[in-house]
Amino acid sequence: MNRDRSRRFLFIIIIAIYVAFGLVTSVIGVIIDKFQVQYNVSLNVAALLPFAFYLSYGLFSVPFGVQMDRIGAKAVLIIGMVLMTLGCFLLYLSNNYILVIAMIFLAGIGVTAIQTAGNPLIRELDSPSNYTANLTIIIGVGALGYAFSPLLVPYIQAKGLPWSQVYLIFAIISLILLLLLLTAKIPKVRLLEEEKINVAVIGSLLKEPVIITYTLAIFFYVGAEVGTSSYIVVFMDKVHSFGNNISLWNKGTFMYLAFPSASALVVGLFWLFQAIGRLLIGQLMKVFKPRSIFIFHSAGTCIALIIAIISPAKIALIAFVLTGYFTCASFTSIFSAAIQSFDKYHGAISGILCTAIVGGAVIGFLVGTVGGTFGMRSAMIVNLIAFLYVFAISVFGKGRLNI
């Protein structure tokens, strides 16, 4: 009985940790313009914020995966929590734009470690038959962090506080969760053979056409997801003069107090609709073929983004939200198709695919650079090209998705 209670306690902590790193991840989309103004830097420099955060995935996904086999998932998870807490707290104290970028990178390393260690740990908290359901619940609830975080910054600023205050809040939340994690009884995680990263076989896998095409798909998908969500606020401001301080509701009303920034609300809804979409397609896949769902949603992503690029302000806001929804099928479909194409080496394949999340750094930075030089409509076309590659994979990809 005590064992069950301690595992339920740890299960709740893990859910809260997933919410916490969701907060840290998606807030970047609403601080880029504020960072740019506060430190008087170009959009090209501000683009280093998402670059620094997602670069950590490319550099540390495989190393943390290897370390899990050596020091255990518990140690990697605690290291991740320490780094995320430090990154957020030190960012709050930073008064130099280079330090801010560095602390974003440090927090990103922490998030990478948490995600690497989190999934195997979740398996140990219940019977193996409940693993998929538990993972779905944790990821689904964790998505609330992605959706809520963009709303927090304009609310804080409406209270007369600086935007960096949000990182103090994140640091306090992370510290509390770290202390709770240290008091919890964490079971020893035994990695399955398919979860282990075999560095020796990574080179041979990289010669496989399926691995190459689907790794590129993850690279372009995550890049376009980051490049879109992180620059919605900037796009609306630069293209439509729809500033981050414009609300859809009249001043003094409850809705205005809750949502003082329409563009920040759209960033939150982008992530929320993506999360809702993932829950919906889980049921749809019982009726329709996964590949058909992938094709439909990846095509919808491209269409919605085109509408957002060419439309007036209020239609663009709606189209960006729909873009978020339609992205719901891409990551899991790409990942599953690559994994299911091979009967072994799943840990190594997963490590390669997770490393490709560095696309968020490269494409995100490219979007900011193009936006600063040629304008934000041209910048969003970079995302469209990346999403078109994902659509092509959904139609012509050779991965085994329908099993």
What's the overall average pLDDT, rounded? 89
The Cα radius of gyration reads 20 Å
Low-confidence sequence ranges: none
Tell me the β content: under 5%
Structural class: mainly alpha
Shape: globular
Please estimate the helix content. over 70%
- The sequence of SSEs as H and E is HHHHHHHHHHHHHHHHHHH
Q: What is the correct CATH architecture of the largest domain? A: Up-down Bundle
Annotated CATH homologous superfamily of the largest domain = MFS general substrate transporter like domains
CATH topology of the largest domain: Growth Hormone, Chain: A
Q: Main β-sheet, in a few words? A: none
Number of strands: 0
The count of helical stretches stands at 19
In the CATH scheme, the class of the largest domain would be: Mainly Alpha
Distance between the termini: 38 Å
Number of domain modules = 2
What report would you give on this structure?
With about 400 residues, this protein is mostly helical. It folds into two domains: about 1-190, Growth Hormone, Chain: A; about 190-403, MFS general substrate transporter like domains (Growth Hormone, Chain: A, Up-down Bundle), CATH 1.20.1250. Helices cover about 80% and strands about 0% of the residues. The chain is built from 19 helices and no strands. Helix 5 (about 75-95) packs antiparallel against helix 8 (about 165-185), helix 10 packs across helix 18 (about 360-375) and helix 18 packs antiparallel against helix 19. It is globular. The two termini are about 40 Å apart. The model has no long low-confidence stretch (mean pLDDT about 90).
